[in-house]
Design brief:
Layout: E1 8-12, H1 17-28, E2 32-37, H2 42-51, E3 56-60, H3 66-79, E4 83-88, H4 103-124, E5 131-136, H5 148-168, E6 172-179, H6 185-188, H7 192-200, H8 210-221, E7 232-235
Parallel strand pairs: 1-2, 1-4, 2-3, 4-5, 5-6, 6-7
Length: 243
Amino acid sequence: MSARIQGAAIVTGAAGGIGLAICRRLAESGATVVAVDVADRLGATVADLESSGAAVIGVQADLTTESGLDAVLASLDRAAIALTTIVNNAGITRDARLVNMTAGDFRDVLEVNLGAAHRLIGLALPRFEHGTIVNISSRAYLGNFGQFNYSMSKGALVGLTRALALALAPAVRVNAVAPGLIGTEMSMAIPEEVREKMVSAIPLGRMGRPEEVAETVAFLASDDSAYITGEVITVGGGRSLSK
């Protein structure tokens, strides 16, 4: 039986896919989930979670703005629940070859994937007495063709994870999860022939499920992983071992 997770858990990028699976799994472990997303479909996500008995607070906010970050923290103040967990899952892609990448696409990906996580952690830290931070990186931090900005942002998130683990120990543990090809809406939008080629390079022979990523996050957020900090766990079916 997994350890219980007390208090409030902020999950960004919560409206679907991996984020929704993380929200559901943390709620099952006992956390009050603060589900954060910029997307309008967040309302439906919150309703879905509530229908399954989850304790959830929905916050529609753009985390690249000061007002968006303030809205997340204000929701904690209103709920009067101690913050114990942050899961930085929000992320976007703007794929292109380096020579074709615009300054805007480069900046936007770094701002959402790295900057929002950095600022949310910085603002939330005074509310932590103890707790865990889980940053959702990607197997792409090892390098992906046509994803110069995305790979860079996810690699920098790993660097942030390791630096914070040193700075915040022993009160706060900080780890990262690096998913590979996961069966989400984003992955299913990849042309079928390209997707099949990607799957063929995965030693376990299939795409992962969002729930498999969520299970790893729940482990890192709980006391079951009490002696783990500063680490990156790849959930990718062995893809990081192959060419």
